[in-house]
Amino acid sequence: MTKxxxxxxxxxxxxxxxCGGCAGSTPPPGTAGTSHGKxxxxxxVEGDIVLCSHKVPEKVCSRHHPELVSQFKxxxxxxxxxxxPESQCRECHPDLSFEPLxxxxxxxxxxxxxxxxxxxxxLDAHAVKGKVTVFDFYADWCAACRKVDGHxxxxxxxxxxxxxxxxxxxxxWESPLAKRYVQNIPTLPYVVIYGTDGKRFSELNxxxxxxxxxxxxxxxxx
Length: 222
Prior knowledge:
Blueprint (H helix, E strand, L loop, with lengths): L2 H8 L33 E3 L2 E3 L17 H6 L35 E5 L17 E7 L4 H15 L5 E7 L6 H6 L8 E5 L5 E6 L3 H11 L3
Parallel strand pairs: 3-5, 4-5
Antiparallel strand pairs: 1-2, 4-6, 6-7
């Protein structure tokens, strides 16, 4: 079973895996000044993600950027009946969305360790002793990742001071960060949890919010 198929069959009713590249309003390399690199009249913003006329993150739309197709296919993310990545197939998965994230205070312990897919050789040095540290391997184009983000941000908004959130943006399946950590991971998001003792405790795949909360609670007892 492919990466994206595994997630959809495992998490029907939750959220779908979106995979393939990066998202946002900045044109991808080599497209500045082209029709693919600029916002169009049909573009819109859902949350803080810029969507194209196909209602997927503009920078990774395979129909606007066919050069990305081979990467989607290598990652196992492809809907053959509709000729697009399954993660971008609104016909199969109309629930894909990028809702705005909850607002959090300035004291929320959220830091980005990697914003452009750059390698992070070790997680251990970034674990915060005395807190549960959640390392979130995500991508801006991943709707399932967005669901986890929303939940963790909500915890901070509710006043959780015993949690540290460390974000690692894979950007694409073939980035240095992705090659180190997710080559054998079947689904995104990939979450690694460290206990309050600063040691690795558990890991999770996908947007299973109940399992995430359970793991955080267990790690808090370390």
